[in-house]
From TrEMBL:
Its cofactor is Mg(2+); FMN. Pathway: Cofactor biosynthesis; coenzyme A biosynthesis; CoA from (R)-pantothenate: step 3/5; Cofactor biosynthesis; coenzyme A biosynthesis; CoA from (R)-pantothenate: step 2/5. Catalyzes two steps in the biosynthesis of coenzyme A. In the first step cysteine is conjugated to 4'-phosphopantothenate to form 4-phosphopantothenoylcysteine, in the latter compound is decarboxylated to form 4'-phosphopantotheine. GO terms for cellular component: phosphopantothenoylcysteine decarboxylase complex. Signal peptide: none annotated. Its EC number is 4.1.1.36, 6.3.2.5. It comes from Endobacter medicaginis. One of its GO terms (molecular function) is metal ion binding. It comes from the Bacteria. The chain holds residues 191 to 413 of 416 of the full protein. CTP binds at D98, K108, P126, D127, I128, L129, F146, K160, K164. This is Coenzyme A biosynthesis bifunctional protein CoaBC. One of its GO terms (biological process) is pantothenate catabolic process.
Amino acid sequence: PAPAPLRGRRALVTAGPTHEPIDPVRYLANRSSGRQGYAIAAALARLGAQVTLISGPTALAAPAGVERVSVETGRQMRDAVFAALPAEIAVMTAAVADWRIADPATDKIKKRPGGTPPELRLLPNPDILAELSAPGPDRPRLVIGFAAETSKVGENARDKLARKGCDWLVANDVSGDVMGGADNAIELLTPQGSEHWSRRSKEAIATMLAGRIATALGPRTPG
Ligand code: C5P
């Protein structure tokens, strides 16, 4: 049988975008296919972890052996994350919208010829990664954040690791064709330093990361 170093461990993974409604037919969102997060959820499950995948709207099928919880907004994602605790491992790949619409319209906003466009008032969404990383009895042992950057990738990632309070940070340069594509290249930042993982498939990145997580957590102590 395949080795299952994460058997008996619970993991939660967030993936995809969130949609913040403007009215019943329009929304605000970040660009995200969900592919990297789905691949990580699948890779953790292959190593034996019990995985809850908390997903915003994507076109992807739930990976085998993974429990998927589908959400739409950032606030729903936050509630689903905290409902999935306790978990030892948290991998936060979702591209959560930074803002939500303060007062979404319950009816479709009409576009009238010559009319003035509506003004959208925004409110900040909860920072799920920062909330989950805050010390507390339910804090997962290993919280991994993601950072999509288009410039100064390493520098911004170091800042983000410190600011969010997570344990590891996976930084990717999304200035090229990474978004929605099949491949990724990353910088893995841990308290021990940083490593560059050159361009490879999102599945290969996921397999490497899951292996690294298993090594970091070590053998499970009985009881
Ligand atoms: O601040 P920024 O969005 O660049 O941070 C990216 C990291 O934080 C990702 O791991 C993302 O999933 C997480 N995040 C979050 N909730 C937010 C914003 C980002 O969990 N509202």
